[in-house]
Structures are given as structure tokens and as C-alpha cells.
Amino acid sequence: RSGMSDYLSLLRFISAELTRGYFLEHNEAKYTERRERVYTCMRIPKELEKLMFFGIFLCLDAFLYVFTLLPLRVFLAMFRFITLPCYGLRDRRLLQPAQVCDILKGVILVICYFMMHYVDYSMMYHLIRGQSVIKLYIIYNMLEVADRLISSFGQDILDALYWTATEPKERKRAHIGVIPHFLMAVLYVFLHAILIMVQATTLNVAFNSHNKSLLTIMMSNNFVEIKGSVFKKFEKNNLFQMSNSDIKERFTNYVLLLIVCLRNMEQFSWNPDHLWVLFPDVCMVVASEIAVDIVKHAFITKFNDITADVYSEYRASLAFDLVSSRQKNAYTDYSDSVSRRMGFIPLPLAVLLIRVVTSSIKVQGVLAYVCVVLFYCGLISLKVLNSIVLLGKSCEYVKEAKMEEKLFNPVLTTTPGKPAGKQQGTFKSSQDENGSTSVTSQPVHQKDNMPSLLVTSNSDQFLTTPDGEEKDISQDSSELKHRSAKKDLLEIDRFTICGNRID
């Protein structure tokens, strides 16, 4: 009997397992959330690539600026400096601050370009090619880390140089001088250009290796990046910083691939058939970068419950930087804004590209010089067209995000002995007299006897009033201590994590 009862119990258990039912609607919220996560992961590739596409063209705009408009601006600044005695000195400045910065950038580019002639690319290539595969893999990883660290410190060096050269003379001297800062900037750009050259040479060796083992290992290194990021806690601000870093990394890789193709085509006497040999490897590098970014961002948003709509906010913040840099009282040049936001510093990369192009392409004869002039005119046309399209799309994104009030409602800094209320009234009256703010006119230097009405950036606005409310500026020192740890996207730049942790 006991055996029969056990047998019947077993049959009832099996029958219950086969016919047991359950109702998913009893936990509707949970399964609805799971379904939304799946939809979010499906939307990530589209939204991320829209952000990447916009950001890459922003980097391209800042990069083309170095080759096209910067030489013209340097020429105009030098022309003003030479012809100024003919017109008389109307103000106390020989040159406007923007013109001083342009001349400094141009001189740094020229000096570093001639210094790069003492670096032998061929010797570096054969030196790297003689190393083992594992050693090259370690070197490539070290170069990536060094690039991020030197970029973080390099932008501070350039900013310190620009401010030291344009700081008002009546202020108390609190710096070591313009020349030491200038030498530091030249040294930084030169070392960073050499670092990028070693990266390009290592990638070139990987392309030319017979079994492609080094290239495969370098591409697999991108997937190791997924392990180091997806299992960490991310907030929206941290993800914004990572997105900017990915944009910069992808654009830099495109320029490195261009350098590798130029060097290889030169070695094969510009045979177009060899370009098709390089094409599969180039596609593999680009495809691996896109795949890694999509997988990384998809799982980061999944694990941290971040919606795909956040990428449109990131795009609006980048667009805000572009629009604000075109205002009359812009607080920085747009290329410098991109450098701080994404960590993309165009000067070292431009020095290296000019060095590679001039050594790979020989210009001989009148027809060759005519082609160079036409190519330069084409670059200027591309820069202008890209800037116009980007400015139009940026205005569109800013309007969609309803950020116009942040753009046209600047915060004024107080002068000693002047209350904030009086300055606000002065600014309103002057704004009514001048009419609407132009996005193309140049900033005008104010007279020294006028009250200081410094229009700060919106990033400064969020530093002083993070909640968006009008507060008494005289209480800023006490309120900064109790400020909320949450930061606005316009306040986050590429190097925030290097300086302090984003909570």
C-alpha cells in the first residue's frame, strides 16, 4: 500500500507540474517595466548614433577651424597690429583678447610643426615593428591611458596661457609670466603630437602585419572596455561625460585611420588598388568601435534605469555650447569649448596631420600649387557649410529642449561696492538700448570708467544658481557650501571626473 500511495503521489505531483497555471497580469507593473527596458535597448543604437553623428561634426568643425579660419584670423590680427599706429590707439589694448589667443595658437602650431621635423617617422615605425605582439598590445594600452591624462592637463595649460596673455593689466600679478606659460604650451603640444604619432604608428604596424594578429588583439581590447564600464553605477551626468569621451575617441580614430592610409598609400606610390586592400581593415576598426559603443551604452542604460531620451538632452547641451559661442558676449572660443567638453584638443592632432601630409605629398610645379590653393578654398567652403548647418540644427535642438531662456538670461557678476540690484537694472537698460543680441558680431571692449558688467556663461550661471531661481549674489559664499550635489549638464565637462567625483 505504501508503494501504491507513493506512486499515486508521484503521479499527482507530475500532473500538477504539467497543468499548473499562472497569471502574469498579477504582476503587471513588473513585466511592463521589463518590456520597456527591451524597447529602450532597441532605441539606444538610433539615439546614440544621432548623438555621435552630431558630436563628430562638432569635432570636425573645431578641427577644420585650425586649418581654415585660424590662419586668416592670425593674418588679420597681425595686420591690425602692424597698421594700428596709422589709425591711433583708441583704447588701451593693442589687440583684442580673441586676437591674442589666435596669434598664440598660430605661433604654437608653426613652432611645433618645425619641431616635428626632428622626429623620424620611418625610424619609429621600424622600431615599433621589431617588438613582439604582446609588447605592442601593452604599449597601445599605455598610450590610450597617457593620451587621456595628457589631454586633461594640456587643456589647463592652454587655458592658463590664454588667460595670462589676455588678463587685464590693472589686476594684481599672480602668475609666472606669459613666456613660461607659452613654453609650457609648446612643450605640451609637441609631446602630445608625438604621443599621437606613436599611436598612429602602432596602428599602422597592426595594419601591415601579415597574420593581422596585432590588429585582432587591438580590436578585442575595445570589448574589454565593456567589462570595465557596464557594471559600474552611472548617473546621467556620468553617462554624459562618457558619451563625450566616446565621441572624441571615435573622431580621433578616424583621423588616425586617415594618417595610416596616407602613409600606406605613399609607400605604394599612391596605387589606388592598395586602397581596396586597406578598406576591409578600416571597416573592421570602425565597425568594432560602433558595436562596442552600442553594447556599452545599452547595458549602462539598462542597469541604471536611464531612458533613451537622455541622449537628446545631451545633444541639446552640446548644441547650447555652439549657439552660446556665437553670441556677442561669448565667453570662450568654440574650439576651446569642445576641448573642455569632450577632451578633444585639435592643436596636437592638427600638427601631426600637417606633418604627415607635407611629408607624404610633394608639391612641385605651378599646377601643384594651384591645386593646393583650390584644396584650401574647398576646406574653407566645407568649414563654412558645416558651421552653417550645425548652427541651424543647434538652434533647432535648443528650441526643442526649451533652453532659450538660459541662453538669453545671463547672470551678472557684482563689482566691489556695487549691489547686485543696481547692476541688473543697468544691464536691462543697456540691453533695451542695444536691441537684440547678435550671434555674429564681435565683442566690444568696454571702457574702464564704466561699471563692470561681465556676462558670464550659463555654466557659471548654474554654478551660482543651480536651482534656476534668482538669488542674492551677496549670499553666494554661504550658499555654495550648501549647494546641491546634483549638477546640470551644461556644467559637466570632459575633465570633471579628473578633478572631482561626480556624485
UniProtKB/TrEMBL annotation:
GO cellular component, one term: endoplasmic reticulum membrane
Topology in the lipid bilayer: Multi-pass membrane protein
Example GO biological process: positive regulation of cilium assembly
Residues covered by region (Disordered): 412-485
Keywords: Chondrogenesis, Membrane, Osteogenesis, Transmembrane, Transmembrane helix
InterPro entries for the chain: Tatp1
Subcellular location: Membrane
UniProt feature, compositional bias: Basic and acidic residues: 471-485
Biased segments, Polar residues type: 423-444, 454-464
TM regions (residue ranges): 52-79, 100-119, 182-207, 344-361, 367-392
Family: Belongs to the TAPT1 family.
Protein name per the record: Transmembrane anterior posterior transformation 1
